[in-house]
Amino acid sequence: MPYTTHTQQAIPSSLCDAQTLAQAELYTHLESQAEAVAPTQDPLTSRDRRIIGEIIEVQPETVRTIWIEGGITVWVQFVEGGRLPFERNWFATRVAEVKATLPETALERNERLSDELEKACAVFGLYHSEVDWLSFSTKLYQDGHLVGFVGCNQEGWYTRPRQYGLNRVAASAEQVIRLLGVRAAVAA
Question: What residues pair up with 140 in beta bridges, in sequence order?
Answer without folding.
Answer: 128, 148
